[in-house]
Amino acid sequence: MWVWILFDLPVGTKAERKRATRFRNDLLDLGFEMVQFSVYLRHAWSREKAESFARQVGDCVPEAGHVQVLFFTDKQYVQSQVFRGQARPARPDEKPRQLALF
């Protein structure tokens, strides 16, 4: 299962930018990978683990802003198409074959 985090946080003031940067760093600390500036992704071994990741993200959300968590099965994720400046779609990254410890 894949967990996607999409967010829109205010960055109009220095304090808001600091909170947004902290949130992005929290996502990285939780093992998420940046796909786009406000889109992060992580693989989860099970639905329960995916929901655990979502709760952890929820604990990090700043007061202002909007954060959405999406869940995709491996089968759904493999069917997605990725375009990176080329005519043909690239295959999305496959799920990790083993647990990576940092």
From TrEMBL:
Keyword Hydrolase: yes
Annotated GO MF terms: hydrolase activity; metal ion binding; RNA endonuclease activity
Entry annotated with the keyword Hydrolase: yes
UniProt-listed Pfam families: CRISPR_Cas2 (PF09827)
TM spans (from-to): none
Domain of life: Bacteria
Cofactor(s) this protein requires: Mg(2+)
Swiss-Prot/TrEMBL keywords: Antiviral defense, Endonuclease, Hydrolase, Magnesium, Metal-binding, Nuclease
EC code: 3.1.-.-
GO biological process: defense response to virus; maintenance of CRISPR repeat elements
InterPro entries: CRISPR_associated_Cas2, Virulence_VapD/CRISPR_Cas2
Enzyme class: hydrolase
Residues given in the record as Mg(2+) binding sites: 8
The protein's assembly and partners: Homodimer, forms a heterotetramer with a Cas1 homodimer.
Biological role stated in the UniProt entry: CRISPR (clustered regularly interspaced short palindromic repeat), is an adaptive immune system that provides protection against mobile genetic elements (viruses, transposable elements and conjugative plasmids). CRISPR clusters contain sequences complementary to antecedent mobile elements and target invading nucleic acids. CRISPR clusters are transcribed and processed into CRISPR RNA (crRNA). Functions as a ssRNA-specific endoribonuclease. Involved in the integration of spacer DNA into the CRISPR cassette.
Annotated family: Belongs to the CRISPR-associated endoribonuclease Cas2 protein family.
Stated name of the protein: CRISPR-associated endoribonuclease Cas2
Gene source species: Rhodovulum adriaticum
Gene: cas2
